[in-house]
Amino acid sequence: MLEVFGLTSQAESIYRLMLAEPQLGVASLCERLELTDAEVRAALDELVTVALLRESREAHGRLRVVRPEFGMETLLRRQEEQLAARQQELAVARTQVAEMVADYLETAGRDHSAPAQDRRLTGLDAIQAELEILARDMRTECRAVLPGGAQSQASIDNARPLNADALSRGISILTLLQDSARHDPATRAYARWLTDHGSQVRTAAVLPPRMLIFDRRVAVIPIDPANTKGGALRTGELSIVRSLLAVFDQAWNAAIPFGAQLAPDAGTGLTRLDQELLKLLSSGMTDEAAGNRLGISARTVRRQMSALMERLNASSRFEAGLKAAQRGWLLRSQPGWRDRETR
Hints:
Number of helices: 12
CATH topology of the largest domain: Endonuclease, Chain A
Number of strands: 12
Number of domains: 4
Structural class: alpha+beta
CATH class of the largest domain: Alpha Beta
Radius of gyration: 26 Å
Strand order of the largest sheet: 3-9-8-7-4-5-6-10
Order of helices and strands: HHHEEHEHEHEHEEEEHEEHHHHE
Distance between the termini: 42 Å
Strand content: 5-15%
Helix content: 40-55%
CATH architecture of the largest domain: 2-Layer Sandwich
């Protein structure tokens, strides 16, 4: 249990034994737990560091074991403080990254020496026009990441003729959707149409930001992933395209073929969505943010999290995340899949 606080199994064993027999010294601990002197002393140092052992006020040089109802509360409070500090650091980093991207885009827009193929696309019409040109000129492959769960009917209608033309010319199309998209009839029908015409479609609980990569040489990405209607960047910068390809390949290799049926983890009964939801909400993410990340509504987030908290007998999301970590739920590999059509 204490491994979640960064303690070794030896430290936990010593703490439990000293709670029952606080008078034990180093030699006795070595004998009872079959550990070396060095291992016991290292474990004792760990327990002192996290204040589960403190110096005795009665005997100089002896250690006093701290009772768990006080020691665990101290550890939990310290974890909460560290988590809050980390969230603050991430918020600052996010702001700095946004400013850096904005500066880059502004500079690229003013710099007439920048490659002509790198340009900013403003508005849905401009984006669609550029996609039509890129699809027409495509020669080998297209890789697409389409997060957000269910795809809008307008997006499907605009993409279908471009995909049909590309597939008729033998172009390879790889599409990544979110697991939640499997529950939307229109998106499910579109994915099945793509696979029936020779395309490959996979799904994952969490996806990287939206992207389209043409022939491994040109990419179109949103300027603001949270507002894809606000504009896009078309870039042929080799370093950027290669980085996006690496992100795509990593997500693709972890995803599940659309034609396979998702199966809960045999050990925990968790779906991939349950596992990701626990990770996101226990880290402090809001319902709305977690829903956006997973492609589901905030209402669905609250309903599923309520069920998970009840199953874990947890009174808060932080406690749910802690208990899930203690059970090893968050360290397991993602639930598998069965090679059967999802009709």
